[in-house]
Structures are given as structure tokens and as C-alpha cells.
Amino acid sequence: ELRLTPTSKTFKEWKDPSSPLVLDFYFFNWTNPEEIYNVDFKPKLSEVGPYSFKEYFDKVNVTWNKNNTISFKRRRVWYFDPEKSKGTLDDVITTLNPVALSAAYTMRHNSYYMKLSLELTNGFTRQEITVSRTVEEFLYTGYSNELLTLAMKLPQTSNRKLPGDKFAWFYQRNGSSEYEGTFNMGTGAEDISVLGRLREWNYKNKTDFYSDQCGMINGSDGAFYSPGQVRSEPLELYSAEFCKTLKFEYLEDTDLDGILGFRYIGGKLLLDSGELDPDNWCNCNGECVPPGVFNISSCRYGAPAFVSYPHFLYADCSYLQQVEGLQPNESRHRSHIVIEPKTGIPMDVAVRFQINLLLQPHEFVSIYRDAPRIFFPMIWFEETFRLSSENSNNLKELVLLPQKGLYFSIGLTGLGLALVAIAMFKRFTRDSDGRRFQSQKSVELTET
């Protein structure tokens, strides 16, 4: 039974998955920051990691709705796995100062006096172009920045809202159910084809972060996909991290533990902003850039955040030419999702993305006045999952059940036909014996 009901096995596994995911983080350590104002400067980057975590997640605030949908929030808890990590959480990383850079980017269209106040505040708080912190601070515990502390004291509005009093890429998210928002999806109670399909996110079927179709809430939250997937249609995954639906392209059929799966990949079109496909124009989000990178700044509190595949895989060559130390590798950096098409259950998943900050000149901020324009790699992550042997066997039984039912039906039909044939044969032979007996009896009477 695939449908979600309060008593179904599907609901139990969906709400509290038995197997954790693996979440790996990689940082780019900046080794030549002192050269930033040199002519023809290129940052030299050294990848460090992985810093590996076991990720457990469950669904909370679950509400069953009368329209055959279910609303819920997701809670994720990460546990550091030192055995699978290369390094410790105390490792120190040097990179761009994301707080100062974000402040300059968000103020770039403001009035002269607002820009002047930022420049004075930068001087007062001694902002620098770089920052060095531990992996733990960069990931989730966060670190204080006086510029951010002062900004938090200003009135917060819907158009100018800060994520917290400290900076970390995933600040206040470990163990929280509030960050990703509220999801609403179909249960499949009346129509199995809508099982797992999102209808709303934060009570809307379209976000305010992207225009036109790029803001529509479609696809799955990743737990499972609608049953009956076909090769000709993309696989849609909604990412709360990027506030948009990501479309994965069908690549090939594959076999995992004796089960047929459809393999989908994150291709070039997923990160296109209209150059490869004009329909993707709305991914520009105010600033069109060469293909392979798209703008998520509206989703990230106005920060100059741009997402790509790790090491700029599939991206325009101009991105790689801006930096040193990156080596894109398709087998290592490509995202893929393998699902069983009849049920929509994921069997093998590897989702990989890189966060870049746009470094560019800002005339009104002295530390950025002579800065080059570079899409600066900061961090990349991969979230992986593979169906356990036990769940794989359960899935195999689920997939083969209709086939077994068909064989059973055929067997019953065959048995029924055989019984009919035997009965007819017996009747035929009985009638033949009777006719023979009658014939013999007639002959005897004639002879007498």
C-alpha cells in the first residue's frame, strides 16, 4: 500500500525514516588573499574535506487535510562522523568575508548617504576582505561580526530581514524544524498519481523569489516521487535551500539489486538562465550570468549568492578561468537520482551543489573599490543516500507483487480451463461409452 494514511507502513517510514543520509561538506581554503589587489589576480583555492555528517530527519507538525493532502515540517539533525571525515571541525578556513560582502551587495543601489554610512561602519568595525574561522563555526555554530550585530539592532522588515545574530552557512538549522518552512503534498488517497507531489510551500503554490514559472512549486520534497514515472518527463525536486524547483533529466535505465531504476541527472539546463533554453529566462532573477550558475540572492536574504555544480561542472569556461585549483569531474561532481519508476521510491541519490559569492568592485566601500569581479567558490556539499538491503528487498516484493498476482491469475485461469477440459473429456467419454453400450444392445436385440 503506497498511499499515505495514518496507519500505513508507507507513512511510518516517510515520517521517521529508518536509514540516515550522509551529508558531506567541502570548503575552499583561500591561500593567496594578500594578492587580491594585484593586476590579473586569481584566487588560489585548495579544497579541504570532506567533513562528513550522518543526517537524520523526520516530519513534525503533521496535519491531515480534508482535500487528501498532508501538511508538515521537516527537522534535520546532523552528527559529525570523524571516521569518514578528512579533518576535524577545528580546522581553520580562510575565505571571503561573507558579512561585509553581503552588506556591500545589498546596499549597491541605495542612496549616497546610506552607502556612506556603510563605509563608516566598516571602518568602525574593522571589516576586512577575508575571514578565518573554524569549520564548525562556518557550518552551524556561527561566529559574531560587529557589522551584523549592529544591523540586528535596526528594525527588521519583510524586505530587509537578517537570518540571525551570527553567520554560519547552516546557522540554527541543526535540530530545527523552522528553517525549511511548511510543505503540503498529496497523499494519493483518491489519486495515486499525486502521491508525494507538492502543492504548496509556506501556504503558497508559487514563491516570491522568482518570477513566472521559475517560482512555481512543483515536484517532490525528495522523500519519494509520484508513482508511474516515464522516461520522457523530467524528475522535479523542490529545494527549500534554493527556493525553487529543480528539474533532473532522464539519462538511462539502470539495475540496482535486481530492480529496474530510472537514472536522472542534473544536467546543463538545470542551471541555465535562458542562454541554452529561452524558457529559463526567469532564472536570471535580476542578474543574468553565463550558463552553469544561477542567482539565488533573493532566496538568501539579498546576499550575492550564486549556485553551481561543484568545481563549476558544466558551467561556462569563464568561471574556471577566474580561479585556480578547481578540477571539475563528472563522476565526482554530477548529481543523480535513481528511482523505481512504478512506485517513485528513490533507490540511489547523490545531490551535489556549490555556493559561490559574487566578489565585485563597489566604489563606495574602500575594501572592495579595487576588487576584481569573480564568482568566488566558498563551499560545496553532497547529500547521498542508498536504499538499505532490507528496504531493497521490501521494494522488490512490492514491485513484483502485481506480477505475482498476474501469474496467480493466469494460473487460476489455466487451472479452471484444465478442470473444464477434464470435465468435458469425462462427459465426452461417458457419452461415447453410453452410445457404444446402446449400439451393442441394439445389435444383441436384432440377433435374437
Automatic annotation (TrEMBL):
Keyword Transmembrane helix among UniProt keywords: yes
Keyword Glycoprotein: yes
Entry protein name: Uncharacterized protein
InterPro entries for the chain: CD36/SCARB1/SNMP1, CD36_fam
Signal sequence extent: none
Major place of residence: membrane
Keyword terms of this UniProt record: Cell membrane, Disulfide bond, Glycoprotein, Membrane, Receptor, Transmembrane, Transmembrane helix
One GO CC annotation: cytoplasm
Database matches in PANTHER family: GH07959P-RELATED, SCAVENGER RECEPTOR CLASS B TYPE-1 SR-B1
Membrane-topology annotation of the record: Multi-pass membrane protein
